[in-house]
Amino acid sequence: KLYFHVLAPRAAVLFGGSRQAYRYLSESVAGFMSADEMDNLFRECGLRDVRHFPLALGGVCVHVGLR
């Protein structure tokens, strides 16, 4: 939330962009699964040793599972 509601819009203004142009990001992200929900989906699909690694202050997350 910090990344999409505060940091990304401020970075947009700082680099000459429009704060409004980045508003859709926070609205879009609100509909995403949580990292734990995605882990559970991986398990439901038959993957094991499921893990996730948050990056970019939690704005991005890499999920890994073994088949």
Compact overview of the structure:
The protein is α+β, with helices and mostly antiparallel strands. It has helices at residues 2-14, 23-29, 35-44; strands at residues 48-55, 60-66.
Please describe what this structure looks like:
By secondary structure, this protein is an alpha+beta fold. The chain contains three helices and two strands. The protein has helices spanning 2-14, 23-29, 35-44; strands at residues 48-55, 60-66. It has a two-stranded antiparallel ribbon with strand order 1-2. Strand 1 (48-55) and strand 2 form a beta hairpin. The longest helix is centred in the N-terminal third of the chain and has 13 residues, at 2-14. It is elongated and about 45 Å long. 3% of the residues are buried.
Element layout with pairings:
Elements: H1 2-14, H2 23-29, H3 35-44, E1 48-55, E2 60-66
String of helices and strands: HHHEE
The biggest beta sheet reads: 2 strands, antiparallel
Count of DSSP-assigned helices: 3
Radius of gyration, Cα only, in angstroms?
15 Å
State mean pLDDT (0 to 100 scale): 84
**Poorly predicted runs of 5 or more residues:** none
Strand content range? 15-25%
Strand order of the largest sheet: 1-2
User: Could you tell me the number of beta strands?
Assistant: 2
Instruction: Tell me the overall shape.
Output: elongated
Specify the helix fraction band.
40-55%
Could you tell me how far the N terminus lies from the C terminus, measured between alpha carbons in angstroms? 32 Å
Helix-and-strand structural type: alpha+beta
